[in-house]
């Protein structure tokens, strides 16, 4: 496998993971993009503190903005103003978010994009969400409409951007989705979501929550068994399958985004070991 697939990978953390990022920092390449989630139990101060820490430690903070969790326009402005003041507003990831009903005026990510507030506060790069295996609460048609509309909005406002996908255990639907994405005219780089090494039971819990396929055949393909939930597994087989069939001409620019369910340090160590294992052999010399 060509380890170049893991060049410029990105990671995800919560606002409360700053101590764990400090522990893992030596194993993460400087300049790595690190997404900071927008969880219900974390306030604005926690999110801003995390973004500052990511920057201080030499990485690129990518704060999340969860549209349906925003109670008001002033709340969005407060968050963006705080990011701008700290020099951490250049990159954001805008997502609809988990609540079934909006807690304020923003029904989806597109509504946030259309406020004009991102550019005003210094945002230059916007990530948006993609769902290769669909979403349990949204039809495929609605997902595609939302994604193409958001991509068009980024283009119209001259934002750089990318698409970060939900994680999965099977490379086949991801590759098919990438082809469909390009056929629909979306040229944004895609960061394919991949679980870092984690306990099988924990992975299945997240998969159930997000509607990710976990049939017995998919589990075997990924490298675990549904009858043995006590072990830990990593995305070795998934990445091999993705790399073997990845074609830039058909799939466009593709990178990898790690969901660190098993922890930042464990994920960073796993990535380093995987890259070393698959590094090209040094060229031989006949001199």
Task: Provide a descriptive summary of the structure in words.
- With 287 residues, the chain is an alpha/beta fold.
- The chain is 41% helix and 17% strand.
- It has helices at 18-24, 44-56, 73-86, 109-113, 117-120, 140-156, 171-183, 200-210, 216-222, 236-245, 248-251, 264-277; strands spanning 10-13, 33-36, 60-66, 91-95, 125-130, 160-165, 190-195, 198-199, 232-233, 254-259.
- The strands form two sheets. The protein has an eight-stranded parallel beta barrel with strand order 1-2-3-4-5-6-7-10. A two-stranded antiparallel ribbon has the order 8-9.
- Helix 1 packs parallel to helix 12 (264-277) and helix 7 runs parallel beside helix 10 (236-245).
- The protein is globular and about 50 Å long.
- The mean pLDDT is 90.
SSE layout:
Layout: E1 10-13, H1 18-24, E2 33-36, H2 44-56, E3 60-66, H3 73-86, E4 91-95, H4 109-113, H5 117-120, E5 125-130, H6 140-156, E6 160-165, H7 171-183, E7 190-195, E8 198-199, H8 200-210, H9 216-222, E9 232-233, H10 236-245, H11 248-251, E10 254-259, H12 264-277
Parallel strand pairs: 1-2, 1-10, 2-3, 3-4, 4-5, 5-6, 6-7, 7-10
Antiparallel strand pairs: 8-9
Cofactor: FAD
Organism: Streptomyces lavenduligriseus
Catalytic activity: (6S)-5-methyl-5,6,7,8-tetrahydrofolate + NAD(+) = (6R)-5,10-methylene-5,6,7,8-tetrahydrofolate + NADH + H(+)
Radius of gyration: 19 Å
Topology as a string of helices (H) and strands (E): EHEHEHEHHEHEHEEHHEHHEH
Number of helices: 12
Strand order of the largest sheet: 1-2-3-4-5-6-7-10
Q: Percent helix among the residues?
A: 40-55%
Q: Report mean pLDDT, rounded to a whole number.
A: 90
Structural class of the secondary structure composition?
Answer: alpha/beta
Stretches where pLDDT falls below 50 for ≥5 residues?
none
Beta-strand segment tally: 10
Spatial gap, N to C terminus: 29 Å
Strand content: 15-25%
State the major sheet. 8 strands, parallel, barrel
Judging from the principal axes of the Cα atoms, what is the shape? globular
Keywords: FAD, Flavoprotein, Oxidoreductase
Protein name: Methylenetetrahydrofolate reductase
Catalytic activity: (6S)-5-methyl-5,6,7,8-tetrahydrofolate + NAD(+) = (6R)-5,10-methylene-5,6,7,8-tetrahydrofolate + NADH + H(+)
Family: Belongs to the methylenetetrahydrofolate reductase family.
């Amino acid at each position: 496998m060509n380890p170049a697939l893991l060049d410029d990978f990105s990671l995800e953390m919560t606002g409360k993971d700053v101590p764990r990022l400090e522990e893992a920092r030596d194993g993460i390449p400087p300049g790595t993009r690190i997404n900071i989630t927008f969880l219900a139990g974390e306030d604005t101060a926690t999110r801003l503190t995390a973004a500052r820490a990511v920057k201080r430690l030499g990485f690129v903070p990518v704060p999340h903005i969860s549209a349906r969790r925003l109670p008001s326009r002033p709340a969005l402005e407060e968050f963006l103003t705080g990011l701008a003041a700290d020099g951490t507003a250049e990159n954001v990831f805008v997502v609809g978010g988990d609540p079934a009903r909006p807690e304020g005026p923003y029904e989806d990510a597109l509504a946030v994009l259309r406020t004009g507030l991102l550019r005003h506060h210094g945002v230059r790069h916007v990530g948006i969400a993609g769902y290769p295996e669909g979403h349990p609460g949204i039809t495929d048609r609605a997902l595609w409409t939302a994604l193409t509309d958001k991509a068009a909005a980024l283009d119209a406002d001259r934002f750089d951007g990318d698409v970060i996908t939900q994680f999965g255990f099977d490379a086949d639907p991801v590759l098919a989705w990438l082809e469909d994405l390009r056929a629909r005219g979306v040229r944004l780089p895609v960061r394919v979501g991949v679980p870092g090494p984690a306990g099988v039971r924990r992975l299945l819990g997240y998969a159930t929550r997000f509607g990710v396929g976990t049939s017995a055949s998919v589990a075997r393909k990924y490298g675990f068994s549904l009858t043995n939930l006590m072990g830990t597994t990593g995305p070795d087989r998934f990445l091999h399958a993705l790399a073997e069939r990845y074609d830039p001409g058909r799939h466009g620019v593709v990178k990898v985004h790690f969901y660190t369910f098993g922890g930042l340090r464990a994920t960073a160590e796993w990535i380093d070991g995987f890259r070393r294992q698959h590094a090209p052999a040094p060229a031989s010399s006949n001199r």
